[in-house]
UniProtKB/TrEMBL annotation:
Keywords: Membrane, Transmembrane, Transmembrane helix. The chain crosses the membrane at residues 20-38, 43-61, 90-108, 115-135, 169-189, 201-222, 265-287, 308-326, 346-375, 396-427. This is SulP family inorganic anion transporter. The keyword Transmembrane applies. PROSITE patterns: STAS. Residues 437-523 form the STAS domain. It is a multi-pass membrane protein. InterPro entries: SLC26A/SulP_dom (IPR011547), SLC26A/SulP_fam (IPR001902), STAS_dom (IPR002645), STAS_dom_sf (IPR036513). It comes from Pontibacter silvestris. It comes from the Bacteria. It is found in: Membrane. The keyword Membrane applies.
Length: 523
């Protein structure tokens, strides 16, 4: 599937992409470190993955707005993989092999799998991520949580869970962190005000940057004048302080190629490739839903990009990577327009390693938690739930089941449960061939008639989207639903999105007996 390239040039969007990249960097930095810590890997490995995801994968990616890096969903796989193979260097070889497997998946066009996930499940995933961000950041917001910053699973390594952790945080609040968190949240809410956004200053300067700088200043004042409110080091960003090229070289790890004969290596590599690919496809599909320009990403290109990224990351000591929905949604929420913002985030990660460690190690986690609380709310707004209810129980039940399942398990298990429920509703309706395709020659434009069949389900969505994407430029397309008793909402949404963007290829679209549906905006 070809990406629709309707966005203005990189240069025209510098004013939005650079500030967005900075915001994503501020969110990604503690996530990279926290995920490495939870994975039982060297802290520097998480930063390497984020840097490779920004500097390299951003340009190879099939998506304009997704951001790649180490994923919380892979922590258990990484932890078990290192334990199984015995050394981190052996695990790096598994990451390299997983990258080659992803390249193969891209070349055999396995990316089409992403199109078979219903919109209700993808929206449920976004809403669930929003809720999890809110619930997981509340303890960091109050300075009462010493678990790693990027944790997403319901059951935690310390024996507590998402909800009991909040109760524990209330019993051990750090008042300085809470004050910084509250001030940061107020600033971010005010910064998002539509009236203020009309002013050039508020457009150009991201609220997250103001929050970070102010939070450092407030904590410095606490340390000097009110020591009892000073924020503990455990609630500040912590990155390795590298002062020379030699120290940087010492932090790099390399694969142990002697493990090629170990059969366990291939099992670990296969597991990483499959889980990372699935999480990437889901994340990119979700970010496409958030994209205000409604661009569709080339999923096969994305798999190839992730493959190259994992090969490079594994070769220089990084963790396996995926496209990460938390970073992608923060990117969209910050106003990003092109893949330049992801590249900028990678540049800042690289510079932070070389020059900014001392400064960034003073940033309170409660300020970054406030940023993620705002991102989380945007993903799980009450209006989203109201919109899904209006679409009927066939859309709402898979949506809500996906949310609950992800909330109480993890991303991939929850998605599978939501998908199973969605398929149950689809299989209740019988369906035949989704459409009849007929070309007619015309003096002005090539006339193409697409007559939909009696029952069109979401299982037909992929073939219909691919057919619409391949329609020739300057044609006249008539999509006729006169014979259809049932057309799934996902298909109607895909047709409406095609109609919105068809003018970019000078295609005239005429819908006959096709119900108009509102395409839900997720930004």
């Amino acid at each position: 599937m070809k990406e629709i390239k309707s966005t203005p040039s990189f240069v025209a969007n510098l004013g939005k992409d650079i500030p967005s990249g900075l915001v994503v960097f501020l969110v990604a930095l503690p996530l990279c470190l926290g995920i490495a810590l939870a994975s039982g890997a060297p802290l520097f490995s998480g930063l390497i993955t984020g840097i490779v995801g920004g500097l390299l994968v951003a340009w190879l990616s099939g998506s304009q707005l997704s951001v790649s890096g180490p994923a919380a969903g892979l922590t258990v796989i990484v932890l078990n993989g290192i334990e199984t193979l015995g050394t981190f260097e052996a695990f790096l070889l598994a990451v390299v092999l997983a990258g080659f497997l992803q390249l193969v998946l891209g070349f055999v066009k396995a990316g089409v799998i992403g199109l078979y996930f219903p919109s209700s499940v993808i929206r449920g995933m976004l809403a669930a991520i929003g809720l999890i961000l809110i619930l997981k950041q509340i303890p960091h917001f109050m300075g009462g949580d010493e678990d790693f910053f990027g944790e997403m699973e319901f059951f935690q390594a310390d024996g507590r869970n998402t909800f009991s952790e909040i109760g524990h945080a209330f019993a051990s609040i750090q008042h300085g962190a809470l004050i910084v968190g509250i001030i940061s949240l107020i600033i971010l809410i005010v910064w998002d005000n539509e009236k203020l956004k009309r002013l050039k200053f508020f457009k150009l300067v991201p609220g997250a940057l103001v929050v970070v700088l102010l939070s450092i200043a407030i904590n410095a004042l606490f340390e000097r004048f009110i020591p009892q409110l000073a924020i503990a080091d455990t609630h500040l960003v912590s990155i390795p302080n590298i002062s020379s090229a030699q120290e940087l070289g010492n932090e790099l790890r390399f694969p142990d190629f002697s493990f090629f004969t170990n059969p366990q290596l291939y099992l670990v590599a296969f597991t990483i490739a499959i889980v990372a690919s699935l999480e990437t496809l889901l994340s990119v599909e979700a970010v496409d839903k958030l994209d205000p320009h409604k661009r569709r990403s080339d999923m096969n290109r994305e798999l190839k990009a992730q493959g190259v990224g994992n090969i490079v990351s594994g070769m220089i000591g990084g963790l396996p990577m995926t496209a990460v929905i938390v970073r992608g949604s923060a990117n969209v929420a910050s106003g990003a327009q092109t893949r330049l913002s992801s590249f900028v985030h990678g540049v800042f990660l690289f510079l932070s390693v070389l020059f900014l460690a001392g400064f960034l190690n003073r940033v309170p986690l409660s300020a970054l938690a406030a940023v993620l609380l705002v991102v989380g709310f945007k993903l799980t707004k009450p209006s989203l739930y109201k919109s899904q209810i209006k679409l009927g129980h066939e859309q709402f039940i898979p949506f809500i089941v996906t949310i609950v399942a992800i909330l109480f398990t993890d991303l991939l298990i929850g998605i599978c449960i939501g998908l199973a429920v969605g398929i149950f509703y689809i299989l209740k309706a019988n369906y035949n061939s989704p459409y009849f395709f007929h070309k007619e020659e015309s003096t002005n434009r090539e006339l193409i008639r697409i007559k939909l069949s009696e029952h069109v389900s979401f299982l037909n969505k992929a073939s219909i989207i691919m057919t619409l994407d391949k329609l020739p430029k300057n044609s006249h397309v008539i999509i006729d639903g006169g014979n259809s008793e049932y057309i799934d909402y996902d298909v109607l949404e895909a047709i409406q999105e095609f109609k919105k963007t068809a003018h970019e290829r000078n295609i005239l679209v005429e819908l006959v007996n096709i119900k108009e549906v509102s395409v839900l905006e997720m930004h």
